[in-house]
Amino acid sequence: MIHPIVRQNRLKVYVSMALLTFLLGLVGTLISYVFHWGLTGTSVFLIISGIINFIAFYFSDRLILRVSGAQRVTAQQIPQLFSITQELCLSHQIPMPALYLVNEDAMNAFATGRDPEHAAVAVTKGLLEKLKPEEVKAVIAHEISHIKHYDMRLMTVISILAGCISILADIYWRGNLASKIEEKDRSGVVAWVGILLSLFAPLSAMLIQLAISRNREGLADASGAGMTNPSDLISSLKKISIDRRPLAGVNRATAHLYFSDPYKIAGFLEKLFSTHPPLEERIRQLEALGP
Description:
Blueprint: H1 4-35, H2 40-58, H3 60-68, E1 70-72, H4 79-91, E2 98-102, E3 109-113, E4 119-124, H5 125-130, H6 133-148, H7 151-174, H8 177-184, H9 189-227, H10 230-242, H11 268-272, H12 279-288
Parallel strand pairs: 2-4
Antiparallel strand pairs: 1-2, 3-4
């Protein structure tokens, strides 16, 4: 029987892809209407959306690992990490994910992949060096929970789709498409619709990232604590909260994938738009679970 969270995450992936297809189809229709292209613009944009959805579903994990600078490691290189991960996977009947190392001193980790059979977990050098083995195990358990519940597929696909939407909006402005549409469309209606879409699309993508990530992180904390020991996960979060070193090379499209906020932001507005719940809040929720 499929777990309700897994079913919800699968549905959200397909809904996200459908929304991207609708958005690009609408943009193509508007452009075709203004430039009198018939169905050409709509067809082209629908084909583009299909290509983006295909890449997001099947290749987003590879793109994210490459962007993060993660390098695949073997059991001979980091035996303790492999031993910890293998123990957790055997205990909870999850296929062993590929393991990657990010050569950064900041303490962080993330999971990616389209399903448990094609999953990967990446950890930073700083996480392995600064946390005790049982604390590393708690962090890995958190990431295993993301894999088990298909969170990583949802968040990985959202990363690519949100990034593509932002790029298309940027093309709309930088390519002077707005002014060209305004010249062709004397009524200004289509131009205003295009402008609203170009402004709303990146914002909506960001809000989706925030909502999905914050909700998923809390659930993964609780599930990960159940796999190991709540006190170990609490201890790791406390150490990470003290370390103010940001993670180099991260970007807004992938920030929500990480175990903790890679930007280490502190201001009120920054926290409001952070992809992660505050570490203090996560610690309080874990402490409420008891020993």
